[in-house]
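Let us work through a complete example step by step.
Step 1: write down the sequence.
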Amino acid sequence: MDKRRVKQSAILAAAVIVIIILVLIIGKIIQKYTPTKEEMDLYEYFGVTEQSSAAIVLNHEIIPQQAVIKDGMLYVDYDTLKEVFNSRFYWDTNENLLLYTTPSDVISAPASGKEYYITKEKKSEKYTIVFADGETAYIALEYVKKFTDMDYRFYEDPDRIVVTSDWSDASVIPVKKDTQIRVKGGIKSPILAQVESEENLILLEEGEDWHKVATETGIIGYARSKKLGEAEQKKYKHSFEKEEFSHILKEEKINMGWHQVTTKDANRTVSDVISKTKGLNVISPTWFYLNDNEGGLMNLASKEYVDYCHSQGVEVWALVSNLENKEVDTTNVLTHTSKRTNMVNQLIAAAIQYDFDGINVDFEAIETEAGEGYIQFIRELSLKCENNGIILSVDNYVPTEYTAFYNRSEQANFADYVIIMGYDEHYAGSDEGSVASIGFVRDGIKNTLKEVPAEQTILAAPFFTRIWKETPKAASDDVEAAAEDYVPYELTSQASSMEESWNMVSENGAEASWSEEDGQYYAEYVNGGETYKVWLEDAESMELRLKAASESKLAGMAFWKLGLEQSRIWDTILKYMN
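Step 2: predict the structure and record it as tokens.
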């Protein structure tokens, strides 16, 4: 009897254990396949922690930058404005002035006011357009919208702006059955929003079980594909009038030479300089340079010079530079609107007074922090040039990552021509090498054309070279001989005309050999214990550059500088000017 009871108890206990195990297994199964009801905190989701902040959802993506809410209006800081919305705005932190340049006007808005000016015409808004908080400027998003191909909607709880600036077709997908949008694809992922049948969502990515979708309120997440219908393409409706830029472009190819003029008297040499050229149709005398920190310019212009050039069928594009007066702070001038205006007004007044045809801007060695001010200078100058029928060209280095702030694409919007200075590959103070190897030139063309249309691009080539001299160091200088980067000679160089360099090679009994890699002749010789090296310029090296420009359908050529060329070079140039 006792044994029977024990046995029954054991069976009962085993059954209970089995039942418990089954319950646990079933519970786990139910738990696994039961969607979580946990909801994501939307303030955390959008990253909104401040009462005066609003998240920004740009083209169905939450971006790190946020807007500021002030007096019921939305504002973005200047860096966000430039990076996210519209890079054409310019904030003058020195004069507390916000500028926007259209193809026809400079529009200015003083800080902390509701007024703005289209050139001189006064307009106003019902809100503060821009205000400064310490070093940071904040611009009303409604004002930004006036000049930007964008639209936005504002939502609360939490505060956020849903911005559209990408107007390509969208895939719209309907909700078939009430469902949820979750943070990730999976029923255990927290819920972001409940959506009802017949609502429309934007389909961002199509998946097998879960689609990535966005709501019109800026929530981006995942919804079960079986709860959604078939996607359809939808065209956005918007009516922004895109800005159109016009340019003064010549029908014939540009054949331009720079004429270095350092005194008023030097203008008298123009007839002799032009007489030694063939097919020259533009001359650029170095007449103007930045001469003080208020934007004042030195002026070496001559009406007689212009009249003579016109009588020879040659246009005059006067050059303005920033290099001659080392006491001038170029950054200071470019970052003050009043000082840029002073420069612009002097140049336009001179163009009218002396009747020259164009302005050639040659601002070099600009600091990164002056980049925006420099581009604004080009914008402002271009408008007054166009209003007066004056051609504007801008000289540029061969593109590198270090000169990206020269913003060639924006230059091309406003200037008529962008000139590639296809030389100074090696320069005084650099390692020895060619001034303009053909690979360097071709790369310069290729990379410039990524930003500038070919019909606005001019290639500048050198009429000079550099003669490099290696002077052995004295024995007393040999203490660092063990260092890996030790060089046993002092390296110097001197710029030389085409003819002078060939004469020096000949006089020293050296033989020039063609360098396929550089696309020019190379020679070296020893004189007085010093080694001389030179990458020579002649018709053959020039023709390779002319061919490169022609094959890329560039607008023409420019040459630095007149007077340094071999006379026979012009016959080669003429072959490519038709």
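Step 3: interpret the result. Residues 2-33 form the longest helix (32 residues).
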